[in-house]
Amino acid sequence: MGATGWLRWIVDFSKPFRMPDFFLISGLFLSRTINSNLTTYIDKKVVHFAYFYLLWLGLTLLVTDHDVLRANPVQFLKLYGWNILQPTGVLWFVHMLAVFYVTTRMLRSVPKWGVLLAAAGLQIAHQALWIDTPSFAINRLMDYYVFFFLGYAISGLVFDVADRAKVRPWITVSILAGWGVCNYWLTQHNLHHIPVYGLLMGLAGALAVIEIAALLSKWKSARFLRYCGQNSIVIYLTFFFPMTFLERVLAKNQIIPDVGWGCFAILVISAVLPLLFHLAIKKTPLIALYVRPKLLRLGNKHTALATAAASRFSKARLANAAKCRVFRRSGAYISSIRSHCY
After folding, report:
1. CB proximity list for 249: less than 8 A, separation 6 or greater
2. Is the alpha carbon torsion for 268, 269, 272, 275 positive or negative?
3. How far is CA 156 from CA 28, 160, 337, in A?
4. What is the pLDDT of residues 4-27, one digit of tens each?
5. Which of 27, 135, 291, 295 has its CA at 20 to 30 Å from residue 94's CA atom?
């Protein structure tokens, strides 16, 4: 909106951990499917994200670059292709999830400690600018793959952290308060931009979010957050459209003079409108915007059903499913990958 408001300190506070948190949680449930047959894995972990990225990339470009489409359709197609190779737009994280899932599948036979050390080294090296490439995707892999792989490698520990947070809420609140003070001080001194600090602050923040979400899961008053989490894919894919429109309207008309409250209004409306739109189209063909059609799914239907049935009755799956439900009840952050748990 052309100025800075009171929300800036919240943005700054969350900067060290908002993407590490997302990717760490994305890796939490990978152990369920990492050894599944290749067709099933590609369908759920690659085609799934590719479908949404390609579809919503096109819709996004129609909004941001419609003038290019009218003037030169070939150039528009080139722009579309370039955004597949260099996912610099608002949906870059969807693109990177597919990359991370493929990378982890390829590295599954490598000792986890070795992958973690290598990923941490790349994160530190890139933050220190010792390694840099012209590729947006490769740079983001160096930045965030360590958090994704951590979620996969230490998922049991993360679940234990969530369980302990629920059992000892007051101790958890004390720990969170201490973390909040430290994170605020460190971000105010821009230490999250320093190698090693950035890695540790990202991990600490991600675990703090998990503890907060575990506490929220105990409160019925957090049902709206729970609903947001259960439909987070809807918000992630759609928020850009109301946000862009509202930014232009508010900047032009100054309907809300205070920048902070104006940004807060944009934030809330951009989260709620996608949910309302999703409800409106739920029983129409437009639901394909959020649910991949069966025609675009790989693998034999009967094989998939048999595999699901066998997996459903395994003790390990039942134990993990119980823990997954804890996370699903924990608000928008922890439930951000709910639709991809299976």
Report:
1. 255
2. negative
3. 9, 6, 17
4. 778 888 999 999 999 999 999 999
5. 295
Residue 73 is encoded by which pair of tokens?
């359709």
Domain-located, residue 2: no
Would you say residue 219 lies in a domain? Answer: yes
| 244: CB partners within 8 A, 6+ apart | 63, 64
DSSP string, 255-323: SS-SHHHHHHHHHHHHHHHHHHHHHHHTTSGGGGGTS--GGG--S-HHHHHHHHHHHHT-HHHHHHHHH
Query: Helix or strand or coil: residue 155?
Result: helix
Residue 47 lies in a domain: yes
State how far Cα 298 lies from the chain centre. 24
- CA–CA separation, 53 vs 137, rounded Å? 14
The total number of structural domains in the chain stands at: 1
**Residue 104 domain flag:** yes
User: Using the 8-state DSSP alphabet, how is residue 321 labeled?
Assistant: H
Q: What is the pLDDT of residue 85?
A: 93
Taking only Cα atoms into account, the Rg of the chain, rounded to an integer number of angstroms, comes to 21
Q: Of 7, 8, 17, which is closest to residue 180 (Cα–Cα)?
A: 17
Tokens coding 225 = 């957050």
pLDDT, position 237: 94
Q: Assess contact for 236 and 271: CB atoms under 8 A.
A: no
> Which residues of the chain fall short of a pLDDT of 70?
1-3, 300-342
pTM of the model: 0.85
Tokens of 271: 């989260």
Q: Residue 256's pLDDT is what?
A: 80
Identity of the amino acid at 55: L
Within 8 A by CB and 6+ apart from 92, the residues are 136, 140
Q: What is the sign, positive or negative, of the torsion defined by CA atoms of 226, 273, 206, 86?
A: positive
Q: Which domain holds residue 220?
A: 8-340
Q: What angle do CA 216, 221, 223 make, to 5 degrees?
A: 75
Q: What is the pLDDT of residue 304?
A: 45
Q: What is the dihedral of CA 140, 142, 145, 146, to 10 degrees?
A: -140
The residue among 198, 187, 77, 188 whose CA lies nearest residue 142 is: 198
Check residue 330 and give its pLDDT.
46
> How much is the pLDDT for 301?
52
